């Protein structure tokens, strides 16, 4: 009965299949592979099913009756099960040589969003070009040939895309289940992600405070200014400057050091030298509208409680890598007692008001590589459990750099240690796109980069460009301190001004971002979207790694090189025309490319015809300078006679307590009438109509309703 209920729940999460496109059949071929076809058209060629006693000696199975089962479990998902006496299992897929493959890793190998010429294990990526330790991953790929494949395992394996038109994976497992996922409508790659994520996991809706702007330092115990003498006062100094400059913020987190013990981690506490009154301090932050979180990792620092307890109970992994600078081995969390101990000790932090963890490490040799996926999934789960017990779902924010897809429901992602230069920024944009393609939708990067060498790293231009990218990212987090703080030398007022512009813009876009976080939670479809997800019939979009759709409404083209110039391509399909978002005068036809220049006070951003963009001040955070603050929502409308109807699902509230509300924009060219219909938006609200030569604001009724306009000249 349980398995039936689970299967029914899975079916309820799947998208509706379009009539006529789901008449798929699966069959075993004379060449000992599998083929999925619709009519006379072959969609998938699973050209070899692999088994062997070593990953370098696997061969194709030649008997369909031994250890192989396959069937269509839904009209668009085939399940393949392997269970032989071999130690390794895998599969090979073959298509046209010019086909593109995506997914598996967040890291953009060779600065590309495709997997061309990439062969690597399903594990964390170490120090590399542009970003170190950018390690979200999933045993899932999709291809421009029109399907996706998901290997349902936590075991170590490898993927190989070095042969044109071919993808292969091999896992160290005597059994293996993988799924072949077809679109519910032709060219609907989003529906592949939507069907894949219930098989693995979907992201929890984050709290509004988790979206940022969030401010943090790699070490709040140094770089003091004025009368500051400890980390606690240093954080107050940051918040005071944000307040004085009226820069919006929702949260702060403390990286190490903050506790006692070797390298400040392992005793599950706050060091009174750094935080003289940690509980009172955290309560003060909360009262001022700021959530506080801390760094954690599964590493037993030498000499700490965590190290001694795990050594005493034989919970530590024995590794070939000696502890570096006091960094000890990881605990084997497959041991139930070790897992329970760690979860119980972490409960100290929420008990004093901490509302989330930055979850680090997991791929630095502290455990055997083959354990990475299993151990990180366990650690992320226990970290989540220690928080959810205190705060409940969606009321705290955990984020990690190393995560496997089954952990999406318990953590969000930041992209590791990006380099504080234009290369780091460019790679971060590409990694944000790639993160979305493996359905880690709630994602952010260290604005300005983490790896900072030299006094003026990042430069003011790099930092400004990155701030604009973070404004149009799901999460805006900015690293300051340790000689790199916008309002202290060597930085100038220009950097503070850009910080204020971008942080406050991100805060104002919170209604839009939250709404797409809800979509990500319900469907798995990301917020940062590769161009081809929205424009799948436009061949020019397949390998674009420096621009993206932000939700469905925005086309974002960050500046990732020095000087402020770049070309922007406008994809065919989502819209016939695009308009520049900030000045609302420059209109571009789909299928064209424009050369643009912007200063550090802007970013190339465009909206589609018929765009609906909810913005507004719906979460106060630290904005206590606003007297008698009240939430207010503004719905920006960009009507076009060429788009008779467009919709937006607005999400209001926190987590499961929130409510989805439909907003409908209609245009009738014949009667020259515009109409917007809306449900109960939960707060005071207005619509802002944009026309040629101006705009018009109309207040909306509480509880829902509609408003109409006639005889106006539209932007498009």
From TrEMBL:
Show where the Glycoside hydrolase family 31 TIM barrel domain sits.
220-513
Tell me a GO biological process for this protein.
Answer: carbohydrate metabolic process
In this protein, which residues make up the domain named Glycosyl hydrolase family 31 C-terminal? 524-613
Q: Name one Pfam family in it.
A: Glyco_hydro_31_3rd
Q: What superkingdom does the record give?
A: Eukaryota
Note whether Signal occurs among the keywords: yes
Which keywords does the record carry?
A: Glycosidase, Hydrolase, Signal
Hydrolase: present as a keyword of the record? Answer: yes
The leader peptide range reads: 1-20
> What does the sequence similarity comment in the record state about its family?
Belongs to the glycosyl hydrolase 31 family.
Q: Name one GO molecular function term.
A: hydrolase activity, hydrolyzing O-glycosyl compounds
Protein name (record): Glycoside hydrolase family 31 protein
